[in-house]
Every structure is written in C-alpha cells, then in structure tokens.
Design a protein that fits this description.
By secondary structure, the chain is α/β, with parallel strands linked by helices. The protein contains 8 helices and 8 strands; from the N terminus they run E-E-E-H-E-H-E-H-E-H-E-H-E-H-H-H. It has 2 domains: 132 residues, TIM Barrel, CATH 3.20.20; 60 residues, no CATH class. The chain has a 6-stranded parallel sheet with strand order 1-4-5-6-7-8. It has a two-stranded antiparallel sheet with strand order 2-3. The radius of gyration is 17 Å and the shape is globular. The mean pLDDT is 91.
Length: 196
C-alpha cells in the first residue's frame, strides 16, 4: 500500500487556490506504522513564487530523506500548478524539468501527466515514470486510450484514480486497464471483453 506523505493546495484548483502550498500530511514513520510500504510525495514547481518553490523542494527532500532512512520507496509526483490551464508546451516544459529534479532529490519512481512530447520526458529522466489519469474522461474508452498512449510513449505503468473508480463497473475497468497496459490489448477490445 502507498500512502501520501505530503499534501498541497495545488489539488484544490476547484477552490481557486493557486499558490501550491505543500505541507507534511504524515511522517514516513507514521505512514509505515499505518501499513504503507511506500510513500507518495508531491512536488509543485514554477508556482510563480521562488520562496514557495524552495519550501516545496525542502519538504520533498525532507520526506525523501526520512523514507531513505527507513528503506521505504518514494513515488515522486510532479503536479504542475493550474495544469488544466497550461498550454501543451508549458505543461511539457514543467513536467520535463520537474521529473529530472524529482529524480535528483531522491524519488524512486515518478508519477506525472502525459505530455505531447512524453518520450522526451522519459528519455530525460533516469527513473521509471508512471502516467497519471488526470481529469475524469468523458468515456471510459478515452481513459483506456490514454493508458495505451502513455505506455506507447515510454511510461512504465499508469496510476489512474477517478477514471478507475468513479465509474459504474470499476472491477471490469481494472481488468480492461490491465489488459491494455500489461498485454497491449486494443482498448476497444478490452472494453468489449470486460465492460460490455
């Protein structure tokens, strides 16, 4: 089980929060005592405030150091500020640079947005990268196609939340997603087999 050790206002874009202030949600030791085998630590850079960026980096590094001392792997999450409002070029630039920074600060694997030049992100980072699902897609087929594209572009796996559980048949979806990601099944065929 993975547990989120940091929390950020970047996740509250619906509330018009724009400063991406990060705090420690759980110490790594607390997360381990609650059963976590790894921790997820989020980092937002290019917030528009150098001091905030520095504080976010300091928290990320602190939690990575705690995890390293306990032998716990860290999933570093690159979550750009106002990600839905960024141009494809700006999103790519932030993801490309941030993934490399996450690796240098101590992450073991990275979870981030798929960009229009995702193979560049993968090539520029020495760690495995997991593509996230992002916003809920209009149809489950759209999210399966996204997973297929992320894997084709070099992602080592995917991390889908809303697209995997906020649907009528989450178990069927999980089976379809595994077929697309692990066995290269065509998304339409996986959807037909597991969700028809």
């Amino acid at each position: 089980m993975a547990m989120m050790s940091s929390w950020s206002t970047v996740f509250c874009f619906e509330w018009d929060y724009r400063q991406a202030r990060s705090v420690k949600a759980f110490s790594v030791r607390d997360a381990v005592e609650l059963g976590a085998e790894m921790v997820l630590v989020s980092l937002t850079l290019q917030t528009g405030d150098e001091r905030q960026d520095a504080q976010n980096v300091a928290l990320f590094a602190e939690l990575c150091n705690e995890a390293r001392q306990l032998g716990i792997p860290v999933i570093g999450e690159c979550f750009p500020n106002d990600s839905a409002l960024l141009s494809p070029e700006k999103l790519h630039d932030i993801v490309l640079r941030s993934c490399r920074i996450l690796a240098e600060l101590g992450a073991d694997v990275i979870k981030t947005f798929h960009t229009h030049k995702f193979p560049e992100v993968v090539a520029g980072c020495p760690l495995p990268i997991l593509g996230l699902g992002g916003s809920k897609t209009p149809h489950v087929l759209d999210s399966l196609r996204l997973a297929q594209k992320e894997i084709a572009d070099g992602a080592s796996g995917v991390v889908f939340g809303r697209n995997a559980i906020q649907i009528d048949n989450p178990i069927g979806y999980q089976k379809a997603l595994v077929e697309v990601v692990k066995r290269s099944m065509d998304p339409e065929a996986a959807l037909k087999r597991y969700m028809a």
